[in-house]
Specification:
11 helices, TIM Barrel, globular, about 300 residues, eight-stranded parallel beta sheet
C-alpha cells in the first residue's frame, strides 16, 4: 500500500554561531541578528529534502531560549526562579515568521516549545517551593506562546525529555494547559527510554507522539502491547552517533514501524535534535532520511 509519510526534524540543527560577533554586538548595545543562522539551518533542511523543518533552534539552548524571556526568571549558570512566572511578549514567533519566508512551497514549519515539566526540572526554584504550581505557571506562559505561534507554523512540537526520567501524575493535565484550543497539530517529543510510561503517553492530549525508536528499537515491542490510535513520528536516524545510516537500513526500520502502527505513522525523523552532530553528518543523515521516505512512499 502506498504511504504518505512526511520527513521531519525534531528541533535543533548544528549551525556554528559566531560568538565574537555576539560579544561585539553586546558591548556595542546592538541587538544581534540571528537571520543568517536561521537561513543556514533552513537551507540545509530543505536542501536535504525534509518535509517539515524548524528554525534550527540556533538562538539559545532550549531551556534559556524560553526562560530568558519570562517574567520571574533570572539567568546565571542555570535558570533561577525569583518571582511569579508570567508571559509578556512573543519569544520564538519572529524567528518562525522569518523561517516561513525562506520555505519553498509545500514545505511545512514546526514550532518547538520546551515543555513545562522540563523547564521546571531545569530551574533552581527560589520562589515557589511548589513544583506543581511552578510547572503549571510555565505551562500557562507556554500556552500564550503557542497561541501566538499557531498562525505561523504547521505543527507545534512540545519537547519533554524529562518525562523519560520521571512522569508526574499531572503530566496530561499540564500538557492540556499548553495545547488547549490550538488550531494547529501538536506533537509531544520525549527522548530516552519511555517504555515504562507508554500506557500514559498514548493518552496524552496531543496529536502526534515522537520517540527515539532508532536508538531504542525495543520500544516497538512495548508499544505493541498498547494498541492505540495516536499518530506517530518515528525516530529513524540516531542523533547521538556520527554513523550515517544507509537508506536501506532506514527503510527496513520504518517498515517495522509501519507493521506495528500502520497508517498512524505520519512522520519519520531523527531520534532527537541534531545540535551535537557535525553539520555535514547531520545533513547527510537528513538526506538519507528523505530518500528513504521517498522510497517508502513509492517514489
Amino acid at each position: 500500500m502506498k504511504q504518505n509519510l512526511k520527513t521531519s526534524v525534531i528541533g535543533s540543527y548544528p549551525i556554528r554561531v559566531d560568538t565574537l560577533d555576539l560579544i561585539y554586538d553586546y558591548f556595542s548595545c546592538i541587538e544581534s541578528s540571528w537571520e543568517r543562522y536561521i537561513e543556514q539551518a533552513v537551507h540545509d533542511m530543505t536542501e536535504a529534502g525534509i518535509s517539515f523543518v524548524s528554525d534550527g533552534q540556533t538562538r539559545d539552548p532550549f531551556i534559556q531560549l524560553f526562560t530568558r524571556h519570562l517574567n520571574g526568571c533570572r539567568i546565571r549558570q542555570r535558570t533561577e526562579i525569583i518571582g511569579p512566572i508570567s508571559y509578556h511578549h512573543p519569544i520564538t514567533v519572529a524567528d518562525q515568521i522569518y523561517a516561513r519566508q525562506l520555505l519553498p512551497p509545500k514545505i511545512g514549519l514546526i514550532g518547538i516549545l520546551t515543555g513545562p515539566y522540563t523547564l521546571m526540572r531545569s530551574s533552581v526554584d527560589s520562589f515557589y517551593y511548589d513544583e506543581k504550581q511552578l510547572c503549571f505557571d510555565f505551562a500557562t506562559a507556554l500556552h500564550s506562546e503557542a497561541e501566538n505561534l499557531q498562525n505561523h507554523v504547521d505543527v507545534i512540537s512540545i519537547d519533554e525529555p524529562c518525562f523519560s526520567n520521571e512522569l508526574p501524575e499531572y503530566a496530561a493535565e499540564v500538557l492540556r494547559t499548553v495545547t488547549a484550543g490550538l488550531s494547529c497539530s501538536t506533537r509531544l517529543h520525549v527522548c530516552g527510554d519511555v517504555s515504562r510510561i507508554i500506557p500514559e503517553l498514548v493518552d496524552m492530549p496531543v496529536d502526534i507522539l515522537s520517540h527515539e525508536f532508532k536508538a531504542s528499537p525495543f520500544l516497538f515491542r512495548v508499544f505493541e502491547q498498547y494498541p492505540n490510535k495516536k499518530k506517530m513520528c518515528i525516530g529513524a536516524v540516531r542523533s547521538d552517533d556520527v554513523t550515517i545510516e544507509p537508506v536501506d537500513e532506514i527503510v527496513k526500520h520504518v517498515q517495522k514501524a509501519l507493521d506495528i502502527f500502520g497508517e498512524n505513522v505520519v512522520q519519520i525523523a531523527p531520534d532527537c535534535g541534531q545540535r551535537m552532530l557535525p553539520r555535514q553528518i547531520a545533513f547527510r543523515k537528513l538526506q538519507h532520511l528523505a530518500i528513504a521516505g521517498g522510497r517508502i512512499n513509492g517514489g
